[in-house]
Design brief:
The protein has 305 residues and is an alpha+beta fold. It has 2 domains: 36-128; 130-304, Cyclophilin (Beta Barrel). The protein has helices spanning 2-128, 157-168, 262-269; strands spanning 132-139, 142-143, 147-151, 177-181, 185-188, 201-203, 222-225, 238-241, 254-260, 283-291, 302-304. Strands 1, 2, 3, 4, 5, 7, 8, 9 and 10 form a 9-stranded antiparallel beta sheet that branches. A two-stranded antiparallel sheet has the order 6-11.
Length: 305
C-alpha cells in the first residue's frame, strides 16, 4: 500500500512538473512569439522608415535631376536662341553686305555699261566718218558745255546738208531757243525769235509719212526739224529732244543724235518758262561749228516759198 502511495505521489509530481513546464514553455513560446512579433514590427517599421527615406531621397534626387535637366534644357535653349540670334544676325549682316555689294556692283556695272555705251557710240560714229555739229550755248549769259550732235546724212541727207550750210553761213549765231518744254524738247533756229520765222524757203520733209524712209527714232538727244502742218515747210528751225518722244516718229525729219553735252541739254530744258513755253531766262545759241570728218556736204535742195 505504501508502495502504491509512493507511485501515485511520484506520478502526481511528474504530472505537476509537466503541466508547469508546458505552461512555462507555452508562456515562453508566447513571450518569444510576442517578442518576435515586436521585433518584426520594429524591423518592418524601420524598413518602412528606410523605404520612405529612400523614397524621399529618390524623390529629392529625381527632383534635383529634373531641375538639373530643366536648367540644362533652359540653358541649352538659351544657348540655341543666342546661337540662332547670332546666326540670324550674321545672316542679316551677310544679306545687308550682299545687298550692298550687289548694289555697288550694279552701280559700277551700270556706270561701266553707260560709259562703254558712250564710248562704243562715239567709236561707231568715228568709224562711219559722219559729220559732227558743235553747238555753243549760254544760259543767262553763262556759257555752257558744248552740245555735240552726230549728224546722220545716211537717214536724212538733204536735211543734214541744209543744216550744215546754215551753220557754216553763221545763220544760227546769236539766235535763241524760243520754246522750251521740260521732258519734251528745246526749240530754236528762228531769226525772229517768235517761232514764225525762217530762211525764206522750205525743204523736203524727210520722214516716212511724207514718203521718205527715215528709221531714226525721236529719243532723248535726237535733233529733228520743226515745221508747220505742211510736210515740206521746215527751213531753219530745229528741236532737240529732252526725253523720248515716240509720237513724233515718222512725222518729223530726225537727222542727228547727241553724243555729248547732256548736262547743257538738261540745264536749258529745265529753265522757268512763261506764256507759249518761252523761257524767262535767255537761252542763246552762240554759234554752230561743223566737223565734216571726211563727209562732203552738198548744196541743199530747197523749195521756194
Amino acid at each position: 500500500m505504501k508502495k502504491i502511495y509512493s507511485i501515485l505521489l511520484v506520478a502526481i509530481l511528474v504530472f505537476t512538473l509537466s503541466a508547469c513546464g508546458g505552461e512555462n514553455a507555452k508562456e515562453g513560446e508566447t513571450t518569444n512569439k510576442g517578442k518576435q512579433t515586436e521585433n518584426q514590427a520594429e524591423n518592418q517599421g524601420e524598413a518602412k522608415e528606410d523605404k520612405e527615406a529612400q523614397t524621399e531621397e529618390k524623390s529629392d534626387k529625381e527632383g534635383n535631376e529634373a531641375q538639373t535637366e530643366e536648367k540644362s534644357d533652359k540653358e541649352g535653349n538659351e544657348a540655341q536662341t543666342e546661337e540662332k540670334s547670332d546666326k540670324e544676325g550674321n545672316e542679316t549682316k551677310t544679306e545687308e553686305e550682299s545687298t550692298k555689294e550687289n548694289t555697288d556692283n550694279k552701280s559700277e556695272n551700270d556706270s561701266d555699261k553707260e560709259k562703254a555705251g558712250k564710248d562704243d557710240k562715239e567709236k561707231k560714229m568715228e568709224n562711219k566718218n559722219l559729220p559732227i555739229a558743235v553747238i555753243s550755248t549760254s544760259l543767262g549769259g553763262e556759257k555752257l558745255e558744248d552740245i555735240k550732235i552726230q549728224l546722220r546724212p545716211d537717214v536724212a541727207e538733204n536735211t543734214v546738208n541744209n543744216f550744215i550750210k546754215l551753220s557754216n553761213d553763221g545763220y544760227y549765231n546769236g539766235l535763241i531757243f524760243h520754246r522750251i518744254i521740260a521732258n519734251f524738247m528745246i526749240q530754236g533756229g528762228d531769226p525772229t525769235g517768235t517761232g514764225m520765222g525762217g530762211p525764206g524757203y522750205g525743204i523736203k520733209g524727210e520722214f516716212s509719212q511724207n514718203g521718205v524712209e527715215n528709221n531714226l527714232l525721236h529719243e532723248r538727244g535726237v535733233i529733228s526739224m520743226a515745221r508747220s502742218q505742211a510736210p515740206d515747210s521746215a527751213g531753219s528751225q530745229f528741236f532737240i529732244c529732252h526725253a523720248d518722244a515716240p509720237f513724233l516718229d515718222g512725222a518729223y525729219a530726225a537727222f542727228g543724235t547727241l553724243i555729248s553735252g547732256e548736262d547743257s541739254l538738261d540745264k536749258l530744258a529745265t529753265v522757268k518758262t512763261g506764256q507759249q513755253d518761252r523761257p524767262e531766262v535767255e537761252c542763246k545759241i552762240e554759234g554752230i561749228k561743223i566737223e565734216l570728218n571726211g563727209y562732203t556736204a552738198k548744196d541743199p535742195v530747197v523749195i521756194k516759198e
